Amino acid sequence: MAGNPVHAIVPDCTGPQTFTEARRIVAALIQVPAKFIEYVDANVAANLPPGSVIKGIVPHGTAYWTRTAAIQTEQTDGTLLDYFLKVSHTGVGESSLKGEFVSMTAIHRTASDFCPMPIAAGSYASDPDVHFYICNFIDMTEEIAELDTLPAKLADLHAHGVSPNGKCGFPVPTSQGALIMPNTWTSSWEKFFSDMMQRLFAWEKDMHGEDKEMNALTEAIIDKVIPRLLRPLETGGREIKPCLVHSDLWDGNTSIDAATDKPIIYDASSTYAHNEYELGAWNLPRHTIYTTYIKAYRKYFPKSAPEDDAEDRLIRYRLRFDITSSGAYLTNLRFRMLALKDMRYLVNKYPKGYEGSEARKAKE
């Protein structure tokens, strides 16, 4: 069921080989033994409907740092049902899969026909360092979700998936690549996003090493660009209403339900955020889901004010995706180069930062 991670197979570049914490974590995550999807663990089976008879398990789909499979069962009434299993290991893998389960549960609660039904997340009885996520199995096509259906459905999710307390954040940590984000509830979107980016920049540096230009641009992005582009969303009488976002909605995490022809999304790492943050992944030229989808989305969910900043906000948001991708691969520097290009543009355009008189919205 998982999409083919296209960005995981781009040519490698030579990068630093220092065995840092970020590199150690990623090196461990990508080594999930295949044997853990060759049988159905007792704790996995315990989360299937009572009376389920396991008929088999087969590898299904591809993923960068998990193993995925389809579990074939027969129910008490003779019905044959399949379930999707995702397996990871290490403490980071456990947090990531728990975050995915809570994310998909929130999405399913808001739009039940937009994603597979999540069932459980937990750890193997046979090996407590191996962790799993189970959901119902949906037979999907090999096609990207269509322009006339996906944007409308996503806008509907954003409109109805409102933050339970009016703040940005999420009930549990979720992952950005291999970095676990705490998602601490925060009243200010600028504050929440700035904290997230500082963590991502530090992780990416730990992965690929020092770069003088990168360091200088990072400081300017945090101190100048983020306040300039995000503070106006929450000052001057303007406000945003944090909504439920998938947070990684690129081509590989959406498809079409073969039975209904409706769009399906999966592999979420959610938070409650500015709705336009979701569109950062749709603003990357390497993706099939690109700017035409953004244009279609805006028919249902217009640009936030100030509208003149909207396109540069999307560049600011897509930078998060490139930094996340850069921090996910041990030797691939392509995404750092892409990030640097956007960082230069934003820093050159907004060298003075925020020039308004209003302070940032308080954290609490």
> Strand portion, in percent?
15-25%
Mean pLDDT: 93
Task: Determine the fraction of residues in helical runs and give it as a percent range.
Answer: 25-40%
Element order: H for helix, E for strand: HHEEEHEEHEEHHEEEEHHH
Sheet/helix structural class: alpha+beta
Q: Terminal Cα separation, in Å?
A: 40 Å
Shape: globular
Number of helices: 9
Oligomeric assembly: single chain
Please report the total strand number as a whole number: 11
Biggest sheet strand order reads: 1-2-3-5-4
* Poorly predicted parts: 1-15
Major pleated sheet: 5 strands, antiparallel
Radius of gyration: 21 Å
List the SSEs and their pairings:
Layout: H1 21-29, H2 42-45, E1 53-59, E2 67-74, E3 80-89, H3 90-110, E4 118-123, E5 130-136, H4 150-160, E6 174-176, E7 179-181, H5 189-208, H6 212-230, E8 243-245, E9 254-256, E10 263-265, E11 271-273, H7 291-297, H8 310-326, H9 334-349
Antiparallel strand pairs: 1-2, 2-3, 3-5, 4-5, 6-7, 8-11, 9-10
Helix pairs in contact: 4-7, 5-6, 5-8, 6-9, 8-9
Summarize the structure.
This protein is an alpha+beta fold and 364 residues long. It contains nine helices and eleven strands.
Protein described:
A five-stranded antiparallel β-sheet has the order 1-2-3-5-4. A two-stranded antiparallel sheet has the order 6-7. 34% of the residues lie in helices and 15% in strands. The radius of gyration is 21 Å and the shape is globular. It has helices at residues 21-29, 42-45, 90-110, 150-160, 189-208, 212-230, 291-297, 310-326, 334-349; strands at residues 53-59, 67-74, 80-89, 118-123, 130-136, 174-176, 179-181, 243-245, 254-256, 263-265, 271-273. The model is unreliable at 1-15 (pLDDT under 50). The two termini are 40 Å apart. By secondary structure, the chain is an alpha+beta fold. Strand 6 (174-176) and strand 7 (179-181) form a beta hairpin.
